[in-house]
Design a protein that fits this description.
179 residues; Nuclear Transport Factor 2, Chain: A; 4-stranded antiparallel β-sheet; 42% helix; globular
Length: 179
């Protein structure tokens, strides 16, 4: 009889131990199934940043547009676009088209530089520039390419461009505009 009672006692204790293990496993199981917030889609973040930055740029006071352009572009692109805008102008810093091509051909497609036109649009005057289209085309590492149409309804003008955005540190910058 003692043997039966001891066996039952042993069986009961072993069942309790087994339940403890199950409880521990049950508590650990949800950790594996926890749904974490997905990483944000960087191309969507780049698109949002690009749209907001372009529209903000065209609302900037003319006297601060140059510094605003520097804030939203890479240093290389800023220098490149400044050179492109000033090709064949009567200034000390201006380059001939051939000099411009030689200087930048290894880093940019100089045929799509927008020589003699402004940053992002070819028009000199505008009322209110809005991004009417901004479609993601491709990604290469931290570089995102977008098909963009800028629109000024009052002047009935559309400016189709492609914009390359690069992620640097915690933000984005315009690295090239193909005009």
């Amino acid at each position: 009889m003692r043997l039966i009672i001891l066996s039952l006692l042993f069986l009961i204790l072993s069942c309790k131990e087994e339940n403890k293990n199950v409880t521990i496993k049950a508590n650990q199981a949800p950790k594996e199934n926890i749904i974490t917030k997905p990483e944000p889609n960087e191309s969507e973040d780049a698109k949002k940043w690009l749209t907001e930055s372009i529209e903000k740029f065209f609302k900037t006071d003319l006297s601060t547009m140059d510094s605003e352009m520097q804030n939203i572009t890479t240093k290389d692109y800023y220098e490149y676009k400044t050179d492109a805008t000033n090709v064949e102008m009567d200034t000390d810093e201006s380059l001939t088209e051939k000099e411009f091509d030689q200087k930048w051909k290894n880093r940019f497609d100089t045929k799509k530089a927008g020589i003699d036109v402004g940053f992002l649009i070819s028009g000199q005057d505008w009322n209110e520039i809005k991004v009417s289209k901004c479609n993601f085309i491709s990604q290469d590492g931290n570089n995102y390419l977008f098909d963009v149409i800028l629109e000024d309804k009052e002047y009935k003008a559309e400016y189709p461009i492609q914009v390359k955005v690069v992620k640097e540190k915690e933000g984005f910058l315009i690295a090239d505009v193909l005009q």
